[in-house]
Every structure is written in C-alpha cells, then in structure tokens.
C-alpha cells in the first residue's frame, strides 16, 4: 500500500516512512491511495476473531513493510485484557433496545486515545529499533492526549517524551495521572502559562529545524495515519458485537473534536463495513456541526473558542478534517490544496454549500451531525443514570444526546464512549449529586510522589531542558 498527500504532491510513501512523520511535505495529510474493500465473505471470516487478530487483519491491509509475523505480534502485545480491562477490549453495553455504548475507555488512561496510542508506542519502538534510531517526542497537552502518549511510551526503548502542560490548570486527577509516572524516559514540563503557550513553545521548537534535527524531535499528534488506522478496528469490533449476520447495518455516534475518531469510522465505511449513519456530535465548539449542516467551514478565533465541560472537544479547527474533504471532493488534491492553503488561510473559511458533492453528502457518506451544550450534558448524564443505571462522562453524554435525533427503527445505534466519568468528576457531581466510581488501580493516585519540572513559558528554557536530558 502506498500513501499520498491530500494536497496533490506527486510522491508516494510506504507506511513505515509516514509512521515517524507528521504532515506531508506539501502541508497535506497522508491517506492510503485507495481503501481496501472487504466483502461479506471477509466479514464472515473476521466475525468472532479476538480483537488483536481482527486488528492484525485490518492493519495488514494497510501495512506491507512490516513482516506479517511481526505485525501480528505487535497487535497481540498491544490489545490484551490486562491493558484494556476485558477480553473483548471494546465491550458493548446495551442501554435499551437498539441503543448501545461501545466502551473505548478502559485503557491505561481511561480515554479512547489509548486505543491508538498504545499501538503507536509499540510501532515506534519496533521501527526505531529496526533503524537503530532514537526519537524525542515533544508535545503539548491540556489532559487526555499527553497522558495517553506518556502511558504508551513509558519504558519504550529509543523513545523519550517531553510533555508540556499548563502549570496548575489540568484537573487534579489528570495531573496525578501524568506526574506520578516514574519512568526515566518520561519528562513532565509544567509551563507557567496557559495551553496556548504550551502549543506556541512546541511550534517554536519544531520550527527551529537545526535543533529539531540535532535532537531528533518528533510528535504524536492526531493527524498521524497510524493512529487513525488503529481506530478503524473498533468500528468493525462494534459492528460484530451488535449484529448477528453480515447484511445487517448499524449506525455510530461519535463525540468529536479534531475529527480523528469519526474519520476512522469514515474509513471503515469506505472499506465496505455496513454503516448506515455516522453521527457527529460536537459541544458548544460547533465548527464541524456547522459544516455538516450548512457546507460552511469556518475556523474560530481563540476568543470564540469556549472552555466547556467536555474539554477534549474544545477545538477551534479540526485537524483531521482535510482528509474527509479530500474524499468528498473526489480526491482532487489541487482543489483540496486551494481550499486549505488558499481560501481558508486567507479568509478563515470556505463554503461548499453550492457544490454538488456537498448536496449528496448524506447519501454518499452517511454523515449527520448535531451539537450539545452544558445543560444537555447534565440532563443526559442524569437521564442515562436514572433510566439505565449507567454513568457516562461528559463527552459520551454529548454523543448520546445527539444520537437520539438520528436513531432509526431496526438499525442499532452505537454511541462511542470516549472517556470514563472519573476523569470529569465535577460535572458528574453537578448532575448526580455524587462522586463517580473510581477504578481500583486509580485509588489514591493523588498521594503518589510526583515527577514534574516547572518552567517559565519560554521556548529557550524548554530547549535547554531537552538538550540537557537527551544523551
Ligand atoms: C480526544 C477526545 C475526543 C475527540 O476526538 P477527536 O478524534 O479529536 O474527534 C472526544 N472525547 C474524548 C474523551 C477525547 O479524549
């Protein structure tokens, strides 16, 4: 399988080359040059496979530069009951007839980012080992991404993580989760500033090409294709659990921010998985809902980006969205380039409302969308608890709220559960008047010793720290 850029660059690359890269050289995102097709016979063969075997079958359609035996071993080592809590890895929970939660949040950091990041850690270690190279991962986090990256990379050979976060601004649980890691290759840098300062520092360091090369700086952000393809697997796993035969259809509802999770659903559907609807849910930061309703994509300035009670969906632009637009426009790289590099860069928006591709988007791609507010979240958490005895987190509540409007008789609706309630306790207390349950392995983590270095909000200090800690 070869990979191309959404902006039309003529080069083609193999999986392991794009694994360690971020953007394509022309600023586009990588996609496979075609989507492998699965037919009913393949689905029948995959039904009933353990999760790690299913992961191997799907990944091997996209990865042909890792020997099959090695890829199989990497999948088996990643998706274990020990790491993900159950043998099914992503068990379905039925709420009522035709409505399910698919649990993606039983990994080490209790959020769905573990599903891909755990595999990425093993792929990085494998590929760096093969090349005899090292990688220093530099990132900025306000919570979920940083902890998922650290738990995936801890103890991995050839890899160090330097994770900046805004000092004193993450939830106490999230701070405890990250800062209690004692692994020598994990470095927590608490920056005296806000999340934007952390992002600016990462950008400044990455733009210093000499420093970047000399210190082998890389990233693990959500535009990495390996993360996306790992997420395709749980759409298949959810489908098999909700159906008994391979002609049945299901719909998925996906709490969305950067469009990574639901983009994996789009890929699964393009491969031929019988998905009826892909329901995209946003919170008050409704950039994506606006696009799917109106055809206008308008990135938001910082002043218009709301801090909400589903913070992992607080985005001003959706970094993976370009992948879908490329497919929507019939894979026209020149046109995608002119939209993102021209119109969007110049005016902060583009408008596809008059494009025929937008007009039959629902029929061709199955996308529907809606938005949810803090009041919706609280009401949904309460209602789900009262009626079904299930406690859901704020992000999953956004998904459930929007899913309601798009259910169809006879077609199971699977809402992706993207985090556990314990990560966002204050809204649970507001909705239910009680603290969320805490999984046993997290009891008392606030009392553990911490490894964190506080630094001024300044790229020079972060560079000096990195230089002093990578041998
Ligand atoms: C990251 C995240 C999301 C958003 O996922 P995207 O892939 O960015 O759309 C939703 N919920 C939780 C809990 C997350 O951590």
UniProtKB/TrEMBL annotation:
Enzyme Commission number, as recorded: 4.2.3.1
Which residues are reported to carry the modification N6-(pyridoxal phosphate)lysine?
113
What Gene Ontology terms for biological process does this UniProt record contain?
Answer: threonine biosynthetic process
The family database entries (InterPro entries) matched by this protein are listed as:
Thr_synth_N, Thr_synth_N_sf, Thr_synthase-like, Threonine_Synthase, TrpB-like_PALP, TrpB-like_PALP_sf
Q: Where is the Threonine synthase N-terminal domain?
A: 2-79
Q: Which GO terms describe its molecular function?
A: threonine synthase activity
Q: Which UniProt keywords apply?
A: Lyase, Pyridoxal phosphate
Domain (Tryptophan synthase beta chain-like PALP) spans 89-336
Q: What is this enzyme's class at the first EC digit?
A: lyase
* Name assigned to this protein: Threonine synthase
The organism named in the record is Ramlibacter algicola
